[in-house]
Amino acid sequence: MMRDDPIRRLPMALSSLVALALAVIPLPAALDVFRPDLLVLVVFYWSIESPRAGGLTLAFTSGLALDVINGVVLGQHALALTLMAAWATHLRLRLRVFSLLSQSLTIFALLTGYQFILFWIDGATGNPVTSFSRWFAPLVGAIIWPLLAGALGRLNER
Amino acid sequence: MVAFRNSDPSGRTSGLLLRCVLYSLLALGLIIVDKRYDHLGKIRRWLSIVAYPVQVAVESPFAGWHWFRESVTTRDALREDNVRLQADLRLAQFKLQRYEALESETQRLRALRANTADVASRFVIGDIMDLDLDAFRERVLVDKGAHDGVFVGQAVLDAGGVFGQVARVEQLTSEVILVSDPAHAIPVQINRNGLRTIAVGTGDTSRLKLPYLPTSADVVVGDLVVTSGLGGGFPAGYPVGTVSAVKRDPSQSLADVDVRPAAALDRSRELMLVWLPPSPVLPTAAAPATGGAGPANAAPAPAGKAAAPGKAAAPPAAAKPAKAPAAKPAAAKPPAGHTP
Question: Is residue B247 within 8 Å of B217, Cβ to Cβ?
Fold first, then answer.
């Protein structure tokens, strides 16, 4: 599955790495709760754009990287990201013909699912974060989705 | 609709379900193994070395900016700093003269009580890396790790007081959980009367809670809260904070006490990682030492507090009836002197 299109690897890896860096870049505490899960959006984009280029492998490794860099229980983000990326891949044909608004709404659902899995594992491993503000991130993520998809599309065109 | 270029999106994503299940099981397995068995320490360390370049890359512009700002400070600012620091140093040295005398006195007294002096024996300065780990947890990353001998549970101080403890150690970095993290608790005592309790984080860097003090407890706003050294994780006697609010609701059995942390939890950049000397006689000495701490510390308190020493002295006497005759006169003396 990876032999067909070796060219696509570079933008994929590059955008994921940048998104990973942005996930831990320091922000003022007031803005921190609004930090969108950029890496998740990037993984969704590649899952929809080129499902055969190993979107799930990207999802799993990205999730693992988030676990390590955020210092949470190993496998938490990996599990959430794998499941949601698989769902995004499953929905990709419909997503492509959706209007921008419907796309954003679908992405919002996916991000909320992602956040819910994190929430659930947090609780199961004994560190529940019950603050309501954790649900802001999916909202912000859905709002910036059109911009991000456009930018990544431009990158991919090169 | 936007930006999707792939001309053949319907290409078979063969085994999507299979791979999804496979990866999910792998991730679940990781979670369980990491949580239950703690075998992943080594794997984590290696993964963290891979992640280190990313962390450094993110941090370096900020570190560079700090460096730049430091290097372009004006001569005036530096001179002002210098004057202020010299004044501070003079004051500190002045205090230190007394401190040394006090420390040797404490050593002698502790030797009398057959207790070990858990004063920090060695420390290493660590810099906080400018990274946001998790918006909902109070944790920071420090640039010292297993490589420098850091261990899990190690006490971390800053210039003001207790900052937190090491929660996880990687090869080159380690994660420090702040005293203000909701999952963090630290054994403390009120410096004024030796009242022991536990300070719990609230998730707010400017506030800790003392949730286990009874409504009748002798605690007032302004009391200094210090580490008690019980549990062995932290050195005893370091400031944790000052009591900032006490709410007593007569219908509740526990008081609502807030503490303002002494450490600059949201401003510090340099932290001290502390090594305690090994304590050889801890298990046997612990029981009499904690029992004796009540009367010894409460003795200077006003006579109205006589109930506290009596209460504190009771458990050891009850616990060791064989030793009671020998221990009783010594323990009973201070309260006897106070009671009219």
Answer: no
Q: How far apart are the C-alpha atoms of A76 and B43, rounded to whole Å?
A: 16
In a domain, A1, yes or no: no
Q: Which CATH number covers residue A121?
A: 1.10.1760
Kindly report, residue by residue over B262-282, the tens digit of the pLDDT: 888 888 788 888 887 665 444
Beta-carbon separation of A25 and B132 below 8 A: yes
How wide is the angle at C-alpha B168 spanned by C-alphas B165 and B172, nearest 5°? 110
CATH superfamily, domain B120-281+293-300, is Rod shape-determining protein MreC, domain 1 (2.40.10.340)
Whether residue A14 is contained in a domain is answered as: yes
Closest-approach residue (CA) in chain B for A18:
B54
* Band of pLDDT at residue A81, cut at 50, 70 and 90: very high
Q: Which chain A residues in 21-40 lie under 8 Å from chain B, judged by CB atoms?
A: 21, 24-27, 29, 32-33, 35
CB atoms near residue A4 (< 10 Å):
12
The 10s digit of each residue's pLDDT in A121-144 is 888 887 777 777 778 889 999 999
**Computed from CA positions of residues A26, A29, A35, A39, in that sequence, does the dihedral angle turn out positive or negative?**
positive
Domain contains A86: yes
The reported pLDDT for the residue numbered B14 is 61
* Residue A41 forms part of a structural domain: yes
Helix (H) or strand (E) holding B323, with range, is none
Domain ranges of chain B: 120-281+293-300
DSSP string for B66-119: HHHHHHT--HHHHHHHHHHHHHHHHHHHHHHHHHHHHHHHHHHHHHHTT-----
Please indicate if any CB of chain B lies within 8 Å of the CB of A54. Answer: no
Give how far A111 is from chain B: nearest CA, Å.
17
For the stretch B277-298, pLDDT in tens is: 665 444 444 444 343 333 333 3
β-bridge pairing B208-210 and B196-201: antiparallel
Q: Are residues B35 and B136 in contact, defined by beta-carbon separation less than 8 angstroms? A: no
Q: Which two tokens stand for residue B235?
A: 């050195």
Question: Among all residues of chain A, which has the CA nearest to that of B62?
Answer: A26
Domain count, chain A: 1
Predicted complex: ipTM over 0.85? no
Backbone angles phi, psi at B80, to 5 degrees: -60, -45
From B13, B27, B44, residue closest to A78, measured CB to CB: B27
Hey, what amino acid is at B303? A
CB pairs under 8 A between A and B: 155
Range(s) of the domain holding residue A11? 6-157
pTM: 0.62
CA terminus-to-terminus distance, chain B: 89
